[in-house]
Amino acid sequence: MMLEGKHAIVTGGGTGIGLAIARGLVAEGAAVTITGRRLEVLEAVAEPGMHPMVMDVTDEDKVRDTTAAAVAARGPVQICVANAGIAEGRKLHKTSTEMWRKIMATNLDGAFFTIRESLNSMLETDWGRVIAISSIAGLRGAPGAGAYAASKHGVIGMIRSLSEDFMAQPYTFNSICPGYVDTPIVARNTDAISQRAGVSEDEARGMMVDQNRHKRLIAPEEVAAAVLWLCNPLTQSVNGSEIPIAGGQI
Ligand code: NDP
């Protein structure tokens, strides 16, 4: 029960990677606020120790008010996992401004609002962890997904800068950078690739598996394990880092 008495917030905590992270944090004794846009999804998965709250990360006022309400109910946020995100692929020269803005608003603005509001209470405590779920596409170019890659590179720049701002203080800021993980995002991508490339769903899934050098999709729990490791007090010197979980792609 390494995290007994700690309040964590996990955006996008009702599905996929976020849910695996929330489960891991609860198993270590944390009280976990899970957020997303769909209350029914959050309520369906919530187990004792998880507290569903509707929060659209693109809505600055909503992020401020929801985080304040979570802090009032469960105390300062000491673990902030900025996980909510969308993955839509299109070659950059075919990307509309609308699509670009939607990806940036969710993946980059959303992480910024989430972390800024959580820090307000975290900085009043003597220990904190900020962890962003970036992507392997935050560390290298992503063919056919330029806006997504730009948003995930942006997240890494923000996290590195935060670590500089608070260096030598009892908080750490790190990014996790997975390859393809077996979640609803990959299921949606499978549909999209299958339609775009005119291949079967099995072939479309195979194309994603092939991009993971270890030739299988990553389990969400593998990402959760990295989050839990970063929450261990003995990782205090791991700060401003990126942790790739991608079979050695980088
Ligand atoms: P999911 O689609 O399962 O998770 C995305 C979560 O984000 C959902 O719970 C969704 O909930 C939430 N979300 C999306 N938009 C918003 C919004 N505007 N406001 C609040 N919540 C939002 O996929 P994953 O678990 O795979 O994705 C989690 C993160 O991992 C993302 O940031 C993704 O980019 C990243 N990632 C995923 C990889 C993969 O292969 N799966 C690889 C590398 C990184 P709701 O729709 O209810 O709002």
Sequence of secondary-structure elements: EHEHEHEHEHEHHHE
CA-based gyration radius:
17 Å
CATH topology of the largest domain: Rossmann fold
Count the E strands.
7
Description:
The structure is a single chain. The longest helix has 26 residues, at 97-122. By secondary structure, this protein is of the alpha/beta class. It contains 8 helices and 7 strands. It has helices at residues 16-27, 39-45, 60-74, 97-122, 146-165, 184-197, 201-211, 220-231; strands spanning 7-11, 31-36, 50-54, 77-82, 128-133, 171-178, 242-245. The protein folds into 2 domains: 7-179 and 219-245, Rossmann fold (3-Layer(aba) Sandwich); 181-217, no CATH class. 47% of the residues lie in helices and 16% in strands. Strand 2 (31-36), helix 2 (39-45) and strand 3 form a beta-alpha-beta unit. 47% of the residues are buried. A 7-stranded parallel beta sheet has the order 3-2-1-4-5-6-7, sandwiched between helices. The structure holds NADPH dihydro-nicotinamide-adenine-dinucleotide phosphate (NDP). NADPH dihydro-nicotinamide-adenine-dinucleotide phosphate (NDP) binds next to helix 1, helix 4 and helix 6.
